[in-house]
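Justification of resources, computational component.

The compute hours requested in this renewal are based largely on the per-chain cost of generating structure records like the one below. Each record pairs the submitted sequence with a full structure-token output. That output is archived, and it is also reused by downstream analysis tasks.
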Amino acid sequence: MQLTKDVSVTFFPSGHILDSSFIVLEAAGKTILFTSDLGRDNHPLLSIPDKPPASGINVVVTEPTYGDRVHDTSAKSFANEINAGLARGGTVLIPAFAIDRTEVILMALRALIKEKKIPPVPIFVDSPMAIAALELYRRAVDENSTEIRPEVSQKWINQDPFDAGALEQLATNEESKSIKDWHGSGILISASGMGSS
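The structure output for this chain reads:
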């Protein structure tokens, strides 16, 4: 996209969240790559991100939040933690980013319940932003968006990939407050800030 006579910008799908991009800015004879958050090749929902240009870049500006760690993403470890919490008769609290992480967690929980690796308990999403994002992800899956892995859209035709059968979406303050009166085992996914997740 030509912004001015001497400045242009090109957007590339970054696979971080729906509609995320990294950009290449060309200005004053220089080329700058702004990566933003780059997605990963093994995201369970989103298509593989485009690769940044291999050459011709003068400056790279990147976001390094998790560049120094490897996350344990094994389903077995996740199931073990959930089962340990549920065995104590409590509700498992999962702090999660409202956009993308909530959807990934819900898909993982659905798979664990289907495979009988965790019991089918009520699952609550307590975040208006997460619920709004969830609707966007549902629509992208239903519409076979190019940002969604083709196998995901094909697998979930006319089905909700995020609901294992007992999903409760707490969108209002009143609904959010009502969870304190609920007794029993369950899973609560609540939005968290950058510094706490």
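Residues 128-142 form the longest helix (15 residues). The domain at 75-196 is CATH 3.40.50.10890 (Rossmann fold).
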